[in-house]
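Protocol step 4 of 5: obtain the predicted structure for the target chain.
Materials: sequence only (see below). No template structures provided, no constraints applied. The aim of this step is simply to have a reference model before the mutagenesis design in step 5. Sequence pasted as it appears in the construct record:
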Amino acid sequence: MTEKAPSKSPLKTIAIVAGSLFALAHVGLLGYVLRPNARVQEPPVINIPRGDYSSYKIKANKDGYEIEYRANDPKVLESEKSLDLDQKKKGWFGGKDEKRLEYRRDQFTMDGTRNIGGELTQEGKSNAKTAECIAADAGARSQGAMAGSALAAGLAVPAATSVPYVGWLAGGWAMLLGQKAGSEVGSQVGSVFNDC
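Step 4 output (C-alpha coordinates):
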Protein backbone atom coordinates (compact mmCIF):
# COMPACT_ATOMS: atom_id res chain seq x y z
CA MET A 1 0.00 0.00 0.00
CA THR A 2 1.19 3.47 -0.80
CA GLU A 3 1.52 6.00 1.82
CA LYS A 4 0.56 9.63 1.27
CA ALA A 5 2.85 12.37 2.35
CA PRO A 6 1.31 14.66 4.83
CA SER A 7 0.01 17.77 3.00
CA LYS A 8 1.22 21.17 3.96
CA SER A 9 -1.45 23.60 4.84
CA PRO A 10 -1.86 26.53 2.45
CA LEU A 11 -1.62 28.97 5.32
CA LYS A 12 1.81 27.69 6.24
CA THR A 13 3.00 28.04 2.62
CA ILE A 14 1.76 31.64 2.40
CA ALA A 15 3.49 32.51 5.67
CA ILE A 16 6.81 31.02 4.47
CA VAL A 17 6.65 32.92 1.14
CA ALA A 18 5.72 36.22 2.87
CA GLY A 19 8.51 35.80 5.44
CA SER A 20 11.06 35.03 2.72
CA LEU A 21 10.05 38.15 0.77
CA PHE A 22 10.20 40.26 3.93
CA ALA A 23 13.70 38.96 4.79
CA LEU A 24 14.92 39.50 1.23
CA ALA A 25 13.59 43.09 1.26
CA HIS A 26 15.45 43.82 4.53
CA VAL A 27 18.71 42.39 3.21
CA GLY A 28 18.37 44.56 0.04
CA LEU A 29 17.60 47.66 2.08
CA LEU A 30 20.59 47.09 4.37
CA GLY A 31 22.82 46.62 1.34
CA TYR A 32 21.58 49.91 -0.13
CA VAL A 33 22.02 51.87 3.09
CA LEU A 34 25.42 50.49 4.05
CA ARG A 35 27.01 50.83 0.60
CA PRO A 36 29.63 53.69 0.75
CA ASN A 37 29.55 56.60 -1.75
CA ALA A 38 26.69 55.08 -3.64
CA ARG A 39 24.30 58.01 -3.29
CA VAL A 40 24.17 60.58 -6.06
CA GLN A 41 23.54 64.04 -4.70
CA GLU A 42 21.50 66.28 -6.96
CA PRO A 43 22.44 69.97 -7.08
CA PRO A 44 19.91 72.31 -5.51
CA VAL A 45 17.67 74.37 -7.74
CA ILE A 46 18.50 78.04 -7.14
CA ASN A 47 16.47 80.75 -8.81
CA ILE A 48 19.02 83.53 -9.21
CA PRO A 49 17.41 86.88 -10.09
CA ARG A 50 18.67 88.13 -13.41
CA GLY A 51 18.66 91.67 -14.71
CA ASP A 52 20.38 93.83 -17.27
CA TYR A 53 23.37 94.48 -15.00
CA SER A 54 23.58 91.25 -12.97
CA SER A 55 26.26 88.56 -13.11
CA TYR A 56 26.98 85.39 -11.19
CA LYS A 57 29.56 82.59 -10.91
CA ILE A 58 28.81 79.10 -9.58
CA LYS A 59 31.58 76.76 -8.43
CA ALA A 60 30.69 73.21 -7.46
CA ASN A 61 32.90 70.43 -6.10
CA LYS A 62 32.50 67.39 -3.89
CA ASP A 63 32.49 69.53 -0.74
CA GLY A 64 29.66 71.81 -1.78
CA TYR A 65 28.66 74.82 -3.84
CA GLU A 66 29.85 78.40 -3.94
CA ILE A 67 27.84 81.16 -5.62
CA GLU A 68 29.12 84.69 -6.29
CA TYR A 69 26.29 87.01 -7.33
CA ARG A 70 26.39 90.70 -8.26
CA ALA A 71 23.12 92.53 -8.80
CA ASN A 72 24.76 95.63 -10.27
CA ASP A 73 27.70 94.61 -12.44
CA PRO A 74 29.49 96.69 -13.65
CA LYS A 75 29.24 98.78 -10.50
CA VAL A 76 30.75 101.83 -12.18
CA LEU A 77 30.08 103.03 -15.72
CA GLU A 78 32.77 105.08 -17.45
CA SER A 79 32.56 107.78 -20.08
CA GLU A 80 35.46 109.23 -22.05
CA LYS A 81 35.36 112.42 -24.14
CA SER A 82 38.12 114.15 -26.05
CA LEU A 83 38.30 117.37 -28.05
CA ASP A 84 41.09 118.25 -30.46
CA LEU A 85 40.81 121.86 -31.62
CA ASP A 86 43.18 123.40 -34.15
CA GLN A 87 41.89 126.62 -35.68
CA LYS A 88 43.06 130.01 -36.84
CA LYS A 89 40.98 133.03 -35.82
CA LYS A 90 40.94 136.20 -37.87
CA GLY A 91 40.02 139.53 -36.43
CA TRP A 92 40.49 143.30 -36.70
CA PHE A 93 43.63 143.31 -34.64
CA GLY A 94 45.36 140.29 -36.17
CA GLY A 95 44.90 136.57 -36.22
CA LYS A 96 45.32 134.12 -33.44
CA ASP A 97 46.13 130.44 -33.67
CA GLU A 98 44.40 128.26 -31.14
CA LYS A 99 45.42 124.70 -30.43
CA ARG A 100 43.62 122.89 -27.70
CA LEU A 101 43.44 119.26 -26.64
CA GLU A 102 40.92 118.42 -23.95
CA TYR A 103 40.30 115.03 -22.43
CA ARG A 104 37.69 114.13 -19.86
CA ARG A 105 36.99 110.82 -18.18
CA ASP A 106 34.00 110.46 -15.88
CA GLN A 107 32.61 107.64 -13.78
CA PHE A 108 28.88 107.23 -13.25
CA THR A 109 26.74 105.03 -11.10
CA MET A 110 23.88 103.12 -12.69
CA ASP A 111 21.31 105.81 -11.89
CA GLY A 112 23.38 108.45 -13.75
CA THR A 113 24.99 110.21 -10.76
CA ARG A 114 28.48 111.44 -11.65
CA ASN A 115 31.22 110.44 -9.23
CA ILE A 116 32.99 113.64 -8.16
CA GLY A 117 35.29 111.96 -5.68
CA GLY A 118 34.83 110.49 -2.28
CA GLU A 119 33.00 107.42 -1.18
CA LEU A 120 29.65 106.54 -2.74
CA THR A 121 26.76 105.44 -0.58
CA GLN A 122 24.28 102.75 -1.56
CA GLU A 123 21.98 105.30 -3.15
CA GLY A 124 24.82 106.51 -5.40
CA LYS A 125 25.17 109.90 -3.68
CA SER A 126 28.61 111.25 -2.86
CA ASN A 127 29.50 111.49 0.83
CA ALA A 128 32.32 113.99 0.28
CA LYS A 129 31.35 116.77 -2.12
CA THR A 130 34.11 119.04 -3.21
CA ALA A 131 34.41 122.54 -1.83
CA GLU A 132 33.70 123.98 -5.27
CA CYS A 133 30.30 122.33 -5.47
CA ILE A 134 29.34 123.48 -1.98
CA ALA A 135 30.39 127.06 -2.72
CA ALA A 136 28.59 127.01 -6.09
CA ASP A 137 25.41 125.72 -4.45
CA ALA A 138 25.52 128.42 -1.76
CA GLY A 139 25.99 131.16 -4.35
CA ALA A 140 23.21 129.80 -6.56
CA ARG A 141 20.82 129.59 -3.60
CA SER A 142 21.61 133.17 -2.59
CA GLN A 143 21.09 134.54 -6.11
CA GLY A 144 17.87 132.55 -6.48
CA ALA A 145 16.53 133.82 -3.16
CA MET A 146 17.19 137.44 -4.18
CA ALA A 147 15.49 136.95 -7.54
CA GLY A 148 12.53 135.18 -5.93
CA SER A 149 11.99 137.90 -3.33
CA ALA A 150 12.27 140.62 -6.02
CA LEU A 151 9.61 138.91 -8.12
CA ALA A 152 7.38 138.41 -5.10
CA ALA A 153 7.82 142.07 -4.04
CA GLY A 154 6.80 143.27 -7.47
CA LEU A 155 3.94 140.88 -8.19
CA ALA A 156 2.52 139.08 -5.16
CA VAL A 157 3.06 141.43 -2.22
CA PRO A 158 0.97 144.36 -3.55
CA ALA A 159 -1.95 142.03 -4.21
CA ALA A 160 -1.60 140.32 -0.82
CA THR A 161 -1.41 143.58 1.17
CA SER A 162 -4.73 144.75 -0.26
CA VAL A 163 -6.55 141.98 1.66
CA PRO A 164 -8.46 143.64 4.57
CA TYR A 165 -7.29 143.04 8.16
CA VAL A 166 -4.59 140.41 7.34
CA GLY A 167 -2.97 142.05 4.33
CA TRP A 168 0.21 142.92 6.20
CA LEU A 169 0.59 139.27 7.26
CA ALA A 170 -0.24 137.88 3.80
CA GLY A 171 2.33 140.25 2.24
CA GLY A 172 5.06 138.87 4.53
CA TRP A 173 4.09 135.29 3.70
CA ALA A 174 4.19 136.04 -0.04
CA MET A 175 7.68 137.53 0.34
CA LEU A 176 8.97 134.50 2.29
CA LEU A 177 7.38 132.07 -0.15
CA GLY A 178 8.99 133.87 -3.12
CA GLN A 179 12.36 133.82 -1.38
CA LYS A 180 12.17 130.08 -0.60
CA ALA A 181 10.99 129.13 -4.10
CA GLY A 182 13.74 131.25 -5.66
CA SER A 183 16.36 129.58 -3.46
CA GLU A 184 15.27 126.07 -4.54
CA VAL A 185 15.16 126.99 -8.22
CA GLY A 186 18.57 128.68 -7.96
CA SER A 187 20.05 125.54 -6.38
CA GLN A 188 18.72 123.31 -9.17
CA VAL A 189 19.92 125.65 -11.92
CA GLY A 190 23.32 126.04 -10.24
CA SER A 191 23.81 122.27 -9.95
CA VAL A 192 23.15 121.88 -13.68
CA PHE A 193 25.49 124.68 -14.74
CA ASN A 194 28.28 123.75 -12.30
CA ASP A 195 28.03 120.00 -13.06
CA CYS A 196 27.60 119.00 -9.43
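Step 4 remarks: Residues 129-196 form one domain. Residues 81 and 104 are 5 Å apart (CA to CA).
Proceed to step 5.
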